[in-house]
Design goal:
By secondary structure, the chain is mostly beta strands. Helix content is about 5%, strand content about 35%. The protein has two helices and 40 strands. A 14-stranded mixed beta sheet has the order 1-2-6-10-9-8-12-14-16-18-39-38-37-36, with no helix packed on it. A ten-stranded mixed beta sheet has the order 5-4-3-7-11-13-15-17-35-40, with no helix packed on it.
């Protein structure tokens, strides 16, 4: 790659976010390695044999600069974004370029074009280091990852994506793309319908656990990454709408209203049942509801116990606050400054059934610790342990000690939950003394007995790893050495898969049912999954669902059970040999 030195062009009023060096051969390096935030590098244009112009977001703001080589931060998630790259004609012998972007994160090269003159071919682009993610250009790109867990998005065009090693996420975007996950437990995002949008996946591997007494038969890996989920917008309530009021919140038995016109415009009212709206009164004057643009915002009203209460949010200092009111909704007292993401704030969210801190969750958030088999092990935001089973039923794990789930840095850490041989069990790891331990629990997940102190790398510990399908001793192997679990890739059914279809669902995907409901990471329900030779999803018993043709390896989506379906992926016959509903996740 021929590179000629150039001086930087910088806005005079903008601070320097990176350090810059120029080597003896004129290579200018932009260095973000000391950044305490991830870097998003947006490529604007690249001049043959000269330099690349880019802008970045990181640390204190945005900046534009010229460079030949760029070093990302040491944090995970630095991205190179070519989505704004456009063709540009520079000279009569250079055609409009680029025709595609070729990025290889493993070798650190990004090639944006080339031309041949007098028998000599020059390529131009730049060099990168410490970047994990990449978004392609509007052209037919070749994007290759490295040993990290990469997130590679092809964007527009017929792209070729290769994750390399690591647990990667590959999203071809629009166009007919070819996706190769490489080694690791990879995720492939399926978001296009029809022959002109179906991606080919070259190396999909669905892991199946051998059926044996006391073991799980589900090789699902659920990833906790956010994003891609739909927002549920409830239908307006039935019946007549009072034009004088706007409904702010209508959970429970009491509606919180804002006056829409007249002398009391903007004031807060409540309405219980089919009654007449009652104004909320305060000693100091107007009871304005406020808004999310102001310091104070009224969120909900409800009778809690025998007391009428109003829930407020302070948008400036990020806390929740309560008013107590009498039977006629006259203010009596103010209580609390409960900061977002505290147990009391989560409790208030649950009581009033509103998302007080705007994190998309009502009440304490849950994170998935383990999702093998039929039972998920969850951690609530306050550290309490829950299990989830069946159609999304959550049950707290209780014990005389109220034990939290723990983590890698604590002495005791809860690792997995499952019903084994008819008994609910919890697997614990003791990180101080390096052994595994189990709880036996009743049908309601109440502790009954404790057993075992099975040292790492003992036959009993390996047996427990196999039964719970987890790596209990952190050696990268489930079970005895030599029994390494095969790769277990996943197919992400993008929430917008049904975009443009009549009856498309804002939450979830039209015609598909997911175990536990329409939440990101939930698996496709077995009732929505069909596979067989020559199966193509065309009017299969009036059923909507995902159809896998085991002869060709093609995957189809039928949204309504009528004749006709959409091709969404090509995995090849070998790729679908062990595929099941649990290999498809809502994303």
């Amino acid at each position: 790659m021929t590179i000629i030195s150039t001086e930087p062009l910088r806005p005079s009023d903008h601070p320097l976010l990176h350090t810059a060096t120029i080597s003896r051969d004129g290579v200018r390096t932009a260095n973000y390695s000391s950044s305490n935030k991830t870097i998003s590098l947006s490529i604007k244009t690249s001049i043959p044999s000269t330099f690349t112009l880019a802008s970045t977001a990181g640390e204190t703001g945005l900046e534009s600069f010229l460079f030949h080589r760029v070093l990302g931060s040491t944090l995970a998630g630095d991205r190179i974004d070519f989505s704004s790259l456009a063709p540009r004609s520079l000279d009569f012998y250079i055609p409009t370029f680029p025709h595609r972007v070729e990025v290889n994160l493993a070798t650190g090269s990004a090639v944006l074009g080339s031309h041949t003159l007098a028998g000599s071919t020059d390529s131009w682009g730049f060099q990168v280091q410490n970047f994990e993610d990449v978004t392609g250009s509007p052209f037919d790109d070749i994007l290759i990852g490295n040993a990290d867990s990469n997130k590679i998005i092809g964007g527009v065009g017929n792209d070729t994506l290769d994750g390399g090693s690591g647990d990667d996420t590959l999203d071809g975007g629009s166009g007919v793309d070819v996706l190769t996950g490489g080694s690791g437990n990879d995720r492939f995002v399926l978001g296009g319908r029809g022959d002109l949008n179906a991606d080919s996946i070259t190396d999909f591997k669905a892991y199946m656990v051998r059926s044996q007494p006391g073991s799980n038969t589900n090789g699902l890996v659920v990833f906790g990454e956010s994003g891609g989920g739909g927002i549920f917008i409830p239908s307006p309530p039935s019946g007549e709408v009072n034009p004088l009021f706007t409904t702010i919140e209508n959970k429970g038995n009491t509606k919180l209203l804002r006056r829409s016109e007249g002398i009391a415009f903007g004031n807060a009212f409540v309405e219980s049942g089919a009654g007449t709206p009652q104004e909320i009164t305060v000693p100091w004057g107007l009871s304005s509801t406020g808004s999310d643009r102001g310091e104070w915002e009224m969120l909900a009203a409800e009778k809690i116990g025998d007391t009428n209460q109003v829930l407020w949010r302070n948008n400036t200092s990020s806390f929740l606050h309560i008013w107590n009111l009498d039977a006629n909704w006259n203010w009596q007292a103010s209580i609390g400054t409960d900061g977002f993401n505290t147990p009391r704030a989560w409790e208030l969210e649950t009581i009033f059934q509103v998302d007080g801190n705007r994190d998309g969750i009502t009440g304490a958030p849950f994170s998935t610790l383990e999702a093998q088999g039929d039972t998920k092990l969850l951690s609530r935001g306050d550290g309490k342990a829950f299990v989830e089973y069946g159609a999304g039923t959550r049950q707290e794990i209780s014990s005389p000690w109220n034990s939290p789930v723990g983590n890698d840095s604590s002495e005791w850490q809860m690792v997995a939950a499952e019903m084994i041989a008819g008994t609910n069990q919890i697997l614990w790891r003791n990180n101080t003394s390096n052994f595994l331990h189990t709880w036996s629990l009743d049908a309601n997940w109440n502790w009954q007995a404790s057993s075992g102190a099975d040292g790492f790398n003992t036959p009993r510990a390996w047996e427990l790893e196999t039964s719970f399908q987890v790596d209990g001793n952190h050696d990268g192997i489930i079970g005895a050495p030599g029994s390494r679990v095969a790769e277990d890739d996943a197919l992400i059914l993008a929430n917008h898969l049904d975009y443009g279809l009549v009856g498309a669902s804002a939450a979830g995907i039209k015609g598909l049912t997911f175990s536990g409901g329409n939440e990101v990471g939930n698996t496709l329900a077995p009732t929505s999954f069909f596979k067989g030779a020559e199966m193509n999803g065309a009017s299969f018993g009036a059923a909507a669902g995902i159809f896998v043709n085991t002869s060709s390896g093609d995957v189809f989506y039928n949204d309504d059970g009528n004749t006709g379906s959409y091709l969404i992926a090509r995995l090849g016959a070998a790729g679908v040999a062990g595929i099941s509903a649990s290999d498809f996740l809502l994303g």
